[in-house]
User: Fold these one by one.
Assistant:
Number 1:
Amino acid sequence: MKAVPQRRGRSMVPLAALTLAWAQPSGLPAQAFPSTPPKPARLSPVHFPPFQESTLPSGLALVVIEHHAQPVLSVSLAWRAGAAADPVGKEGLAGLVAELLSKGTETRGADQIAQAIEGVGGSLSASAGDDFLTVTADALSDQAELVFTLLGDVTLHATFPDSELELARTRALSTLALELSEPGPLAQRRFATELYGRHPYGRSPTRESYHAITRDDVLQFARQRLRPAGALLVVAGDVTEEQVRELAARVFGAWHGTPPGAAPPPPPAVRVTTDIVLVHRPGSAQANIALGNTTIGPTDPLYYPARVAAQALGGGADSRLFLILREQKGWTYGAYAALRRYRGVGYWQASAEVRPEVADSALRELLHQVDRVRTEAIPASELAAVKGYLIGSFPLTIETPSQIAGQVGTAKLLGLGDDYLHRYRERLNAVTAREAQAAAARLFRHPGLTIVVVGDATKLYERLAAIAPVRLVDIDGQRLTPAEPPLSRSIRPSSGRAPIARKCCSKARRSGLRWRASNPRGIPWCTRSATAAVARSSSKPLSCSPRQTPPRAGSTRS
Amino acid sequence: MIGFARPARTAAFRLLAALAGLGATGAGLPPGLWGQAGPIKYEAFSLPNGLRVIYAIDHAAPIVTVDLWYATGARNERPGHSGFAHLFEHLMFQGSAHVKKSEHFQLIERAGGTLNGSTHDDYTNYYETVPSNRLNLALWLEADRMRSLAVTQQNLDNQRETVKEEKRLRVDNQPYAATFGDGTTWPFDSAGCFAYAHTAIGSIPDLDAARLADVQAFFETYYAPNNATLVVVGDVKPVLLRQFVNAYFADIPSHAAPPPVHCKWTLAPGTARREVEDAHATLPAVMRFYRLAPHDHADTPALQLLSVILGQGESSRLNVTVVRRERAALQAGLFGLDERRGPGVLVAYGIANQGVPVQRLDSLIATQLDSVRRAGVTADELTRAKNTYRADFVHTRETTFGRAEALEHYTLFHARTADINTDLERYLAVTAADVQRVAARYLDPANAVIVIVRPKATPARAGDTR
């Protein structure tokens, strides 16, 4: 039964000295398999790879990272001109500007640009994040000259043709429709809106804002904001600093100009109570839960203890949310928590996707774990594990020139300081359990959390209303009101027990509680205006006696 | 099919491609001698129990990847057991003789490492990238579960629920994903080729039917050293590596060879058409699924270049015509699911822009595919495809993990691991006539399953009525 198909390596026969294991008499293990994990050997120190910084006369900052392991080249040029710079009512402008940069210059059409860079196996693209607009070009390093030529052309000579704007607008509108059909992007969009409101980080493109953008808007944005002073050019790969300086001087030497002041956006308003925004997505197979709040600016020293606390809470598979919500409970494929840094005030977020039947249990557990990390010091062994991961995995994040460029670029753009990358690990290592707890208590605000849930409200509303007040909206953010008045509420997540009225009414609902028949679509939710009277009366305790009217034709039940 | 991973929040079709266990550009990109990219230097040996070991040394950074492939995946599942190979992969993290449930990723993450596993049609991989002083830990963990997987009923039930949530997250709750997953199986029939006529994620009833005895039987049949290849890439001392491998793996007994998988299929049996309603989609879409020869077929290089020319990049034909000139699609492309020892699938797709009739989109895509069958490709297009291929390959081997996966790929899907350093010649030799020939052969309408996806006519949003 255990016939051994013996297969020898082709290129090497194991040396006798190293094959003692199978030189033993058959039937006896060569040596007992160790019953405990082997101990670590001595670790080689890791230093951040060297890089050179300089500034061109125009104020364009240049970073060169020489990395010769593979014949690759990555170049990125970033401006402080992300979506946060979109004018009110023209959300999506920075994104369209980025899209159009490579869609035509004074001497090259869009197809010519694409053919030139892709013809050598490279790529050129641009995108707008919240804070920064970035153009990135990648190619094999023997194409450095072409990469710089094309990057310079799209940066200095883009023409933003009308026809390309219309194509970009068409695709942006379709992309928006696609994103609104995906629960993850939908939750993130709503979360940003709830977290930041009308603050620049809270506004998202809409159909209306895409339609409002004119070619003049595009031209003005590009001419004013895509200037060299304050911009950052990062070049990484199999090139020399001398070669890069020469190329940069040739391509960008005559480029001048200063953008209008781009101070980080001001701190947003701080929420002091916790409620739940439920985005009704009919037929959703899961509840996508996202919760968190705004935190600190990028250079606040609280970042380090908060990073440790967020890692313990939900940074990976060896973190509380994953171990409890997935490995213990089987409620989710993954549950995580992370800090997000902006130029202005950032945020933290915990998230999980769970089946509707356990959405309330999962949200209660998430809140309980948030409270734990706020109120209990992280045990010493867990703190060591967290630091082991955060510090030990750092070399894995700087393996390729693109990764190194990303680390250096982020540090520069966010103004994290010249010593940030060199002292990152030692600063994390210095965090004590007490400091991590204090940071969590201050930055993970409960009450004060924003909670967004995307899912089928017919299955989720009552479950969530038992935890905190629920605001119901459709995928466009339009307010909905449940046909039934909101039921009893409890803001204490740890109470864990649904009030009697809720239980009773759930039962009534299952047995055929009448839905409002005025809703023509069979969705048991109707707009606020249609049910204003009901909503106003909802502060009164709801009578629990079920109205045994059978569902009307066209209505649905959960 | 990843054991655990942060949920992807990327474009719909990247998700679709990931579902099939492949990136959109196709996995297993061949290595090159083009440009400055040199060959991958590696050594290989085998233990008497049949475990094949391959290693490549790179001291550039003090990190190392341990990548263990078992030559089993969804193709080895039987009717009524769809999704089992993937569920089993999850169970490999639920404990073994000396490692408690969840302890595998705890030990690796605390050591500063990353890890995961993924289930594909033809293989299942388990990997760790760790600081190089913890090579011993990664190898010890892999050896412990190869020799002594210990799964309880409670842990089976727990991971069954987790896998169902993974299915809901990646498939049931996403637009297009269910149709894409099913669509890749429609070119094959269950009776002749169950191996590729079902999805790797499986069905909920089949997952519910999995028993602890099935777990043990699957382990006995497929998780043996003689059905696995261990690849180690990075900051490694060969003497130490051999010591660890001998100490941890040498006395694991080999098992009888797994039963062979049979797949009967026919190229171009006639056009099939399907229409599907998608409750989550807001835009109609077209997906065309074409049968492909197994990966080791001589047509593969020309087919991969064809997919770049037609469907990958800004200057690909589908993008230039359907997306840009006709403004009919938000995105359109073409890629192959060909990392199989049996027949693969070539997928052409487009998501319609708002207001574009889906039949028009389908006909525009068909016109582009037909034009290559009829008139071939230009020399410039072929050059672009070859250069793209070369660059993609160089990028995939920038990391220790990327090199490890490439070594595994060549070991499983090619005649010899050594092909990793010669395969490129096959790509260099592809001519425009070859591309046209494979287009005519595989993009034959009689070889297609054409699927139209329409948003399900759901009640409009309540907010629109005011």
Note: Chain A is about 35% helix and 15% strand.
Number 2:
Amino acid sequence: MSATLSAFSDQLADAVEHAATSVVSVHARPRLPSSGVHWRDGVVVTTDGTVRRDQDIEVTLPDGSRISAQLAGRDPGTDLAVLRIPPGRLAVAKLGDPAALRPGHLVLALGRAGDRGPRAAFGAVSATAGKWRCWKGGELDLSIQSDLTVYPGLGGGPLVSPDALVLGLNSGALSRPLATTIPVHTVERALDQILAKGYVARGWLGAAMQPVRFSAAMRTRPGIGHEGGLVILSVEPNAPAALAGLMVGDVIVALDGHPTTHPDQVLELLAGDIVGRSLSVELVRGGKSERADLLVGERPRTAR
Amino acid sequence: MSTLFHALAADRLKESVVEIRLESSVGTGFTWGFDVVVTNAHVVRGDRVEVRLPDGQMRSGRVRVADRARDLAVLDVPGLGLSAVRCRDPALLRPGEALFAIGHPLGVRHALSSGVLHGLGPLPDGYPVAAELRRRIWVQADLRLAPGNSGGPLADAQGRVIGINTMIVGGLALAVPIVEVESLVRPRAA
């Protein structure tokens, strides 16, 4: 008998049914609607790539009613867009912890298109990894890739565990061929900032740099103590780096106490909640070790 | 010992599934009743078909009905001798339920593909297919099909047929709901 399979099949259908109570259809582009998750009461999260207009946005709720929604803001860096709807209209998503996911775990992708029932896809987690900076500039706390097919209109819908918990938001735009999920913690982090100011602020130094290795002679000098660092190639006028007195040719060997050997380490530092914080900079200038204090600015919005 | 697989239900369903052979292509069909096979209309041409049984024997069949609009065909196949499939109304299924398909994708005989129910009804606006096809009622499955699966059964976890695999749109497997066959073949033979 296939009793166990039938039971599993029922469990998947239950998970779809329960999780779908917080999944909406988002009408923010021509023709094909995308999907969204009622993440907090009155707050719907979807993918930035599927929200093509800033106004005249509507969402269709699980009960079939179509209501107007306001764009609260976007974070193209992590492919998130946030909409506001009147509170109390539908269930809030039950969130799970995607950090527990391992390759082989079975997962569902959910979506909704207009006033019809939920749409489902099923697959397995293919690969997981730690922090991942997407090509669009944002950083995901966790890289979750799966063999799920994100069918047209399923983008912005949730990744759901077989026990009906939302683990993140599926994005069709962040990578191929595997489906990428924006994990719960990344959504939470971006959501707080978007609800507060409409966008996600990213740290900014205003300096271009590249890795450099010190010569053997340099490494033996007193006070250097580093193999190499990041040499500053240009400094934008009035940018945080300029205000801290950094100059072209300076070699940054540590930021905030962490050795810097690759620009990724700087970008990683700047991706967090860091705007307005002061960083201690260890640098080598003219063969001598020096220190500076740098107040992290906010990346100009035209530069994102 | 776990039974978390389709093998038992699939083994049973396979015994009702045939291959519909044309000169240059292959389709799938399944036994609906005594000496009666159901498939897609686009799988048959003319009024005669060659049918290959699961044990390799060949039978000659005649097209009784070919409804191009619904893409369904009913074949009379004397000496078929296979048992009829069990059916289930797809309207009773929920998205996420486990499904499987049996067919001959690209000529691979009696191949199984597994997946879940994606949805039931017309396709959403914006799917890359003619509006008239998009608006039909489909059993939509998240399941991999290929040419050669056409006309074959889409079944639930217990092997009950819910649809006839008909086309692939945007990667999604589309099947004609099994209930549409009933209006073509009435009364159903035991």
Note: Chain A has a mean pLDDT of 91.
Number 3:
Amino acid sequence: MSIFSFFARPRSAPVARERLQLLLAHERALNGRSDLAAILQEEILAVIARHIAIDRDKVNVKLDRGSSVSTLEIDIEMPASVTPLKN
Amino acid sequence: MAKVLVVTSGKGGVGKTTSAAAIGAALAQAGQNVAVVDFDVGLRNLDLIMGAERRVVYDLVNVVQGDAKLAQALIRDKRVDTLSLLPASQTRDKDALTPEGVERVIGELREKFDWVVCDSPAGIERGATLAMRHADVAVVVTNPEVSSVRDSDRIIGMLDSKTARAEAGERIDKHLLLTRYDAGRAARGEMLKVEDVLEILAIPLLGIIPDSEDVLRASNLGCPVTLHNPLSAPARAYAEAVRRLLGEAIEVTMPMERKGLMSRLFGRKVA
């Protein structure tokens, strides 16, 4: 700790402002509709569940909302012996 | 023409009740006939802030359910005789309010008063939606802090979709009231600035209420801050905000504390 660190306190307000702008851009886009990422997640899982038995506890979903690009990462652990479901 | 004004925020603890009391009192001090209505059923506090907690007999729920007449439930302020309070019930819950009952009571209040100031509960549930339902004007109380700004954005969305005016395709006048503002911390980059909040929420600014010891002092004593100490910085800020509500086009200023030399040198802790 030097005496200068007192004068060079980090400015946190600009960070707050940027986080809010990004977050609200997404929340306003939703505006009553349900989240597209959540819909995609449900539908993708439903399609996979039609073919193999998946354990919901072994599904890992990561979402990162960016200003221009958002990524949805779905990580599904498949059983060692994948047995196709019989119709 | 009577105006119904809702004081709302989404987030709790940002200063809705303090602001409803101060705005109501300042409107009455400006000669308007005012009723302040507490919609926070189950957690009433406007009576306490107004210093009328020992005079409550009937409340909003009694009037809504037809158990008491409006005139019986209204409490006339002892300091300003054009100011009345309609308290909330402390023993019931928010489901005791019905949309039809609230509409009837607001209609009756419109006939008797120039201004009906509705103090909304926090949250986005029934109590908050009923408080904003019949509003012509909304004052969105926001602190310069991320969670408060986010919740205000949500409330602004509801004002534009869930109110009677919005459903009839009419406009509801929305104003931003920035409370607990510390100009020094904002200048040092430690707090969101007025311009930051305005840019994000994009509604016109009604006033900036500085963070001040006078607000707590006034609530300790049960007196709206504009009545308790009209020359204090927050009281002047509320009085200015009310002049804007009454249609005066005056510039928004940031009333400052009048500090002595010692507190200027050593900060507010000394005073």
Note: DSSP finds three helices and two strands in chain A.
Number 4:
Amino acid sequence: MSNPQILSPANHSDLKVITDVGGHVGDNIQFVSTFALEFRNIQSSYPIFFTKNSETGEFYPIALFGFEANENLFLNDSGWDASYIPMMIKRQPFTIGYQGETDNEKRPVVTIDLESPRISETLGEALFDDKDQPSLFLKKIISQLEALHKGYEHNKDFIETLIKLDLLEPFSLEITLNDGSFNQLNGFYTINEDKLLDLDGATLADLNKSEYLQPIYMSIASYSRIKPLIDKKNNLI
Amino acid sequence: MNSKIKRIVIVGGGTAGWLSASIIASEHFSDDSNFELYLIESPDIPTIGVGEGTWPSMRTTLQKIGISETEFLIECDASFKQGTQFFNWTYGKNDTYSHPFTAPHLFNEKNLAPHWQQIKQNISFADAVCPQTPLFDNKQAPKNISTPEYAFNVNYGYHLDAAKFAELLRKHCVNNLGVTHVIANVMVINASDNGDIRSISTDTEGNIEGDLFIDCSGSRALLIGEHYKIPFKSKNKYLFNNCALAAQIPYTTAEDPIQSCTLSTAQSAGWIWDIGLPTRRGIGHVYSSDYNSDDNATTELLAYIKKTAGEKAAEMASVRKINFDPGHREKFWHKNCVAIGMSAGFIEPLEASALVLVELSATMIAEQLPANRKVMDIVAKRFNQKFNYRWDRIIDFLKLHYILTKRIDTDYWIDNCAKSSIPDSLQELLELWHYQVPWHRDNYHIDEMFPSASFQYVLYGMDFETQLNPLSNRTDREVGIRAHSMFADNAAHANQLLASLPTNRELLNKIQKYGLQKI
């Protein structure tokens, strides 16, 4: 369970945040949501797919870490074995909350999950200095959250465009591991490359102008990260 | 005679007219074809909304004609229908059974009905073989918000507002399918020398010529009845109901649960339907005027409303009466005119066969649209054979609900079981089913309206006894060995659905907010 609260020096001046990575701080997850603006970095290490929010049915992009629940094949004894760590992992245990009743009044605020295993009173980075001012660490987090907020907004139109152009298609990944065991990955969607190739020049120009064309191709390029992920899994057998 | 069929003219703009127009135009209209479809609708005649319940076939129909399910559900005030729950049909006292839309577990290959006989003291037939029926008590939906449009976890059709449905189809026809909407009254039907309809004269829009005319004018039957005088075959001797009282009842709060099924509750001489839409319920009493007075039928209806929606709802209810003669035309396609909807026939709404007949009729026209006038008579002959057969099957299946009753409390139920009121075809089947359970072998056609699954649900829901020797053949013996685990699989599936599916209300609220995805 999570327990997000609006961050304030009055309530949280004594808290520290552990910045390690690993299963002990809750990083043993199969995938994390990502942002089109981040795809260029993500595709260097992770396959990018799309999946549905189970509460709303809405699509969002994800970076894949494993082939079953709670499996993160990038975690090893020395930490997170990849050149880039997704924004949604790095921002933990902070999220953006929204304050205000109506859509107009709503403004983003920093919230912190007090149930996160990263929360500590002794270890890790302090959030506030002696004068209750944000620490350098927190300032960095705030700028990351701002980037996340921007990424989230950009995603909405990006996804809408993919749906409008019929560019998403369901797929199922079937993997037989070296020990003969069979894994099937369901509930994920990819870019439909046939439909992409059929788009006319004007549509492609629009996609390019709105900075959607690059992430579309970045996600296609990311499929080459599936094989290394399978290799990681085979190495564990 | 060799001229191409290019222009179709539909007379009448209710659900039948606009649904037929959508089905035919979506198959034949394209920007570069010279196919034309006109629909003439009177500005003066109100449509009566026939049928608020559909079959699962409507999902395929809507998808084919290119309507988004999200738009349909919102615009037509529609909800999900997963079957029918029957009350008091068998004994007249607190008895109930379900006819779900999902076929029994493994129904394509394995017949579990003979093996259910061994455990029938413990579990109803539907609960034993179908994972869907346990969802009905909690008013659960047949799918999740992440299930794509028209896909499902368990099979479903819809409950809908017929007037809003006709309006959605009209917009779709006119805006997307190239249908020309002519708002005018039909004045004269002009015949050619060969007896075909050449054109229709209207009061304000002149003469409308056509190659094929579709009569969707409702019970007036302007073309097939008034013009061609094709006789009407009453089926009142089999199906006694000929009156309906209809009311619309509001929910108490906006969050009241929405039923997963049509509820059908037997009365002294008929039955009451209860259909849950997102914003209201449609409740009505269909009965036989030979066995019940209007006053008593109204009293029974108001008692039901009072019991299920409260005293205030019963006091406020405005009840509309509809008379009908149950039956159909001797033939439906004559010369260059074909009847669809109430002009073709109408029987009581039990098992909601009105809209599905429109879908089937229009689909057959769309698929087999005669290339020219010369071959039209051949298509017409096949159409008439097929739909006469279909009406007979509907009558058999509806009548089955009445003859399995053990009720003897009124003449209506007693007379319904009299041999003279049962079609021969149904009597024969019933004789067979005393010794063998319904199965695919009972079908004459590949596209039977009612699969043997439906017969199983009704027969065994109403405590019909089939005397079996379960070891009599190899196939049954083989299934028998594994039947226990098949029933267990079905129960596990049901539990998984119970735990994962939202209520109808929750899902419809989410669809309002987020919509369903197309994939």
Note: The radius of gyration of chain A is 20 Å.
